[in-house]
Amino acid sequence: MTIRHATREGTMSSERNLGDSFQQYFEILPALDKDSREDVFRIRHEVYCRDLGWEPIREDGMETDAYDAQSVHLLLKHRASGMLVGCTRLVLADPANPAALLPFEKSCAEVLDRSRFDPAVLPRDKLGEISRLAVMREFRQRKGEQQSALALSDDDFEPRGPQSRFPFIPMGLYMGVACVAVRLGIEYNFLLTEPRLAQHFARIGLAIEPAGGEIEHRGVRSPWLLRATEVIPNLRPLVRSMYDVIQQSVDQAFARAA
Q1: Does the CA dihedral 254-42-226-231 come out positive or negative?
Q2: Interatomic CA distance for residues 145 and 39, integer angstroms
Q3: How many CB atoms lie within 10 A of CB 114?
Q4: What is the pLDDT of residues 161-219, one digit of tens each?
Q5: In the Cβ-directed half-sphere of 79, how many Cα atoms lie within 13 Å?
Q6: CA diameter of the chain
Q7: How many CA atoms lie within 13 A of 129 on its CB side?
Q8: CA-to-CA distance for 183 and 10, rounded, in angstroms?
Q9: What sections of the chain are H helices per DSSP?
């Protein structure tokens, strides 16, 4: 594996165990205590406020919004250095007001394909939204990534023989939030992403389905749906070991918190 900026890239082949490789360099955990949640908010502030200017600078150095209290947050760290790498979250229905709309239900109201997936008729306790994925600048400093909140490009999925790169950081975050959804029984998980990246997810078996048309949201985005019950059956054998490692880490964190 090639390590850049405290590990930015990985290689993959049929002989390499992606789970072992991921676990060697990274630790991903649900942020279930105050300190780890504040780490999540600091990452978001660095990326969304300082780097990209998408949100205003906050005096406390933490970027938060009204949906954080009803979310399960994920935190990714670099093992050797302890550096914060990235974060994401799974927004759940508000337990005090389950009918309240999730962010995508507002931003995508005009483009959702309600003939396929209408969140208005889905059980609210089974509905979630994956959002606020961010990766620290030290881990996304390749050409073209400076104006992106994550580190993922077409090249990461191109076949290059035994030394093909695998995008451990963003895929680790997506797999982590999928593990949380599976554990909590959140079946319908919506996310906004670039259509081209959705195609790449399918190449590793992280199958997501189109849920509507395109909108302008910090670039062209469209809503997609990830079903919890389809995560494990669809994963490619090559990446299943990585998912298993992340799932074990997530489960252990929940067990400790309980």
Answers
A1: negative
A2: 22
A3: 12
A4: 333 467 899 899 999 999 999 999 999 999 998 877 777 787 788 889 999 999 988 88
A5: 10
A6: 52
A7: 22
A8: 27
A9: 18-25, 34-44, 103-107, 168-184, 195-203, 231-234, 237-257
Percent of the chain at pLDDT exceeding 90 = 71
Closest by CA to 169, choosing from 2, 41, 29, 9, is 9
C-beta atoms surrounding 181 within 10 Å: 24
| The pLDDT value given to residue 9 | 42
If phi over 0 gives left and psi between -120 and 50 gives alpha, with beta otherwise, what is residue 123? beta
Token couple for 250: 């997530």
Residue 45 has pLDDT above 70, yes or no: yes
Paired residues of 86 in beta bridges = 76, 135
**Spatial distance between the Cα atoms of 244 and 23, rounded to a whole number of angstroms:** 11
pTM attached to this predicted model? 0.86
| Res. 155: pLDDT tops 60 | no
Written as six digits, the tokens of 36 are: 């780890």
188 phi and psi angles, rounded to 5 deg: -105, 105
Cα dihedral 33, 37, 136, 175, rounded to 10, equals 70
